[in-house]
Amino acid sequence: MARPKAKELTERELELMHVFWDRNQSETETELTVSDVRDALQKKGRDLAYTTVATLVRILMEKDFLEQTNEERPFLYRTVRSFDEVSGSMLGDMIQKVFGGSREKLLVRLMEERRLTKKELKALEEILREKS
């Protein structure tokens, strides 16, 4: 019996997705080859074999995070799910699993972790004004 698709991203899969999301923010060209992804990871100090990156891309396609956009080599890939969508889902899962669904408990924990910088405090105040 086949194993059901995991919805969660592993640390390495998330690392690859960040390459795509970063490229989406910084350039108009949002489709990448496996080599592009490997090169971007290498620039960040992460040296993975081409076959490892290709396998991770295939897994991300199976999980519906990436899609292949052409039929000829080199194959091009782009994101199916945005950073906001994925991060929101992951954060929601974490709040549910760790804090019993309580955003208040999450916020209290964040504040206990370390003191906010002036920049963080200002950003938080702006968010609270906008959301109130």
Short overview:
Belongs to the BlaI transcriptional regulatory family. The protein is mainly alpha-helical.
For CATH, the homologous superfamily is named as Winged helix-like DNA-binding domain superfamily/Winged helix DNA-binding domain
The CATH architecture assignment turns out to be Orthogonal Bundle
Percentage beta strand: under 5%
| CATH class label | Mainly Alpha
| Mean pLDDT over the residues | 91
Task: Provide the low-confidence segments as ranges.
Answer: none
What is the string of helix and strand elements? HHHEEHHH
Query: What is the alpha-carbon Rg in Å?
Result: 18 Å
Shape: elongated
Distance between the termini: 50 Å
The counted number of beta strands is 2
* Strand arrangement across the biggest beta sheet: 1-2
Report the total helices.
6
> In CATH terms, what is the fold-level topology?
Arc Repressor Mutant, subunit A
- Give the number of domains: 1
| Protein structure class | mainly alpha
Main β-sheet, in a few words? 2 strands, antiparallel
Which bin fits the share of residues in helices? 55-70%
Q: Topology, please?
A:
Elements lengths: L10 H16 L7 H10 L6 H13 L3 E3 L8 E3 L3 H17 L3 H11 L4 H14 L1
Antiparallel strand pairs: 1-2
Helix pairs in contact: 2-3
Question: Can you offer a commentary on this structure?
Answer:
- The protein has 132 residues and is mainly alpha-helical.
- The chain has one domain: Arc Repressor Mutant, subunit A (Orthogonal Bundle), CATH 1.10.10.
- It is built from 6 helices and 2 strands; from the N terminus they run H-H-H-E-E-H-H-H.
- The chain has helices spanning 11-26, 34-43, 50-62, 83-99, 103-113, 118-131; strands spanning 66-68, 77-79.
- Strands 1-2 form a two-stranded antiparallel sheet.
- Helix 2 crosses helix 3 (50-62).
